[in-house]
Amino acid sequence: MPVSNHDIAVLFERMAVFLELDGANAFRIRAYQNAGRIIEGLTRNLAEAVLQGEDVTRFAGIGKDLAGKIREIVASGTFQQLAELEARLPKILLEMISIPGLGPKRARRVWENLSIHSIPDLKAAAENGKIRTLPGFGAKLEEQIQKGIAFRESQYNRILWSEAEIIARSLCAYLENIPGVQKVEVAGSYRRKKETVGDLDILAVCSQAEAVNRAFRSYPGVSEILAQGGTKSSVILHGGMQIDLRVIAKESYGAALHYFTGSQSHNIAIRKMAQQRRIKINEYGVFKNQLHVAGKTEEEVFRQVGLPYIPPELREMTGEIEAAQAGRLPQLASREQLRGDLHCHTDETDGALSLPEIAAAAHELGYEYIGITDHSQHVSVAMGLDEKRLRQQLLAIDKTNAKLKNITLLKGIEVDILDNGRLDLPDSILKELDFTVCSIHSKFNLPEDQQTERILRAMDNPYFTILGHPTGRLLGSRPAYAVHMERIILKAAECGCFLELNAHPERLDLSDMHCRLAKEKNVLVAVSSDAHNRVGLENVRFGINQARRGWLEAKDILNTRPLKVLRRLLRR
Predict the structure, then answer these.
(1) Which alpha helices (H) appear in 278-426, and where do they start and end?
(2) What was the pLDDT predicted at 2?
């Protein structure tokens, strides 16, 4: 598969982790971390640039050393220093650092002192109280590691939807180029836009089933063939993901797409409705007295049971059938309905773009406004803004806005909610802003009541506008902190605050369930990118996926409003 900027960035970030495990100096570690951030934000595909003979050192932040490693990655998929470190470091160390609570330094200390050779060894050490005996650990951290192991086990063999999309697009493009293929579609949880994906189910309409299956099994990313037949093949890719391909007849396309999209509980309900009408629905079509009566499109399938088309994102058996019967299906939100973005970072803290660059990028995206929300001082690792620096930025925003046409920079801050519920900056500066995104970046392990009260207390501040990434989760690597979301949502409704749906693909925070609860309580949701570079501004499309799973319509989303209306809403 083609090498993307994301692939290159991941390898450099991995190198930074390996160097930390190896005890390298902080400067070398930081250099690779910075390289990953820079490359992730480039709009030019570096692999294409290398293959076309371009000098990639012309891109800011890429020197000769990095350029050489990028060329190695494009040629071989890795680079020598990384491969050497990976071969030298114990594999268990690499597994341990994926567990919440165990960063590289702690992982090495546990490994060295307790002779850990596997995750089961680590689990046993935690259960037997051995980890708490190590200097700097203790019972709470040991409990956190146990929870982290359980969380890791629950996420086994699942990847982010955004990562699955890269695989799916490449495979679909490959299959669409095979002679005779008329349609290719990815079904399953991927089509329902679930946050993480375990495998991919691909459907293809083609008259030459064996030829398509043969070509599929020869795809360059295949490492193992699990099954092969006339109409179906199953393979494992090099990254470990299972892909199933089914070749189907044109007249069965809609029925097969509905069947393999799921969810299973939704399909069972539809089949029961069909039985009540004395018809049969399966992956081959809709049948009445053995006669094929429908199934070419999904609309036909739904029509046979008296329902309008139900979007894939809603097919989770959470009320979509009752809503369809009552004519109350939501008009799900779309990316085109967003008027702006209310969470992005500049080069004043840990972002890559200047104010004029962000304004230009937002204008290209068709936005009317974009909120500047750099970190506040408590996030020292991101060089967060204190009151003095924030005032300087507000002046810079005014100067930039004076030169802009058709786009407005809004004055904001991502201000930390401290553990006592206070905000990280004084009201004297917060009142000068258009809005605030208030977030938790520390003390994730507080008990639920304490964590909830922390947020509720912060929401009492009259300058609290939007609760940022409300549960703090990182999909696949960090579970949500314990918090009573219903109390938070009720408080937001009472105070006139809003909730963020953080669209970064590793967060997608709010969950679909919490989106629905916010909708029920008339609390508007801001679908925001949390962008740190130009590419990051595109995150909003992942947020829209999640919003649609949460039944959100344009009217339920804060940043679908025009600027004049938005300003009025932001004033509590």
Answers:
(1) 298-304, 320-325, 355-364, 387-403
(2) 61
Handedness of CA 279, 280, 284, 288 (dihedral sign): negative
560 and 337 in contact (C-beta within 8 Å)?
Answer: yes
H/E/C letters for each residue in 465-498?
CEECCCCCCECCCECCCCCCHHHHHHHHHHHCCE
Contact 110, 125 (CB under 8 A): yes
CA angle 442, 444, 447 (to 5 degrees): 135
**β-pairing verdict for 242-248 and 525-528:** unpaired
Cβ-based neighbour number of residue 116 at 10 Å? 23
Nearest-angstrom CA–CA distance, 148 and 260: 32
Helix (H) / strand (E) element for 550: namely none
User: Taking a C-beta distance cutoff of 8 angstroms, is the pair 200, 233 a contact?
Assistant: no
Q: What is the mean pLDDT of the chain?
A: 93
- What is the side-by-side strand order in the sheet with 437-439? 414-416, 437-439, 466-467, 498-502, 525-528
Give the 3-state secondary structure of residue 176.
Answer: helix
Q: Which domains does the chain have, with CATH numbers?
A: 5-154 (1.10.150.110), 159-248 (3.30.460.10), 262-325 (3.30.210.10), 335-570 (3.20.20.140)
Q: Cβ distance 277 to 288 under 8 Å?
A: no
Phi, psi of 62 (to 5 degrees): -110, 110
The percent of residues above 90 in pLDDT, for the chain, comes to 70
Tell me the per-residue pLDDT of 361-396, one tens digit each, with 9 for 90 and over.
Answer: 999 999 999 999 999 999 887 789 999 999 999 999
- The total of other beta-carbon atoms located within 10 Å of residue 454's CB is 21
Cα 341 to Cα 99, 303, 410, 537: the distances in Å are: 32, 38, 10, 8
Instruction: Inform me whether the pLDDT recorded for 332 exceeds 90.
Output: yes
Contact 497, 468 (CB under 8 A): no
Which residues, in sequence order, are bridge partners of residue 21? none
DSSP state of 443: -
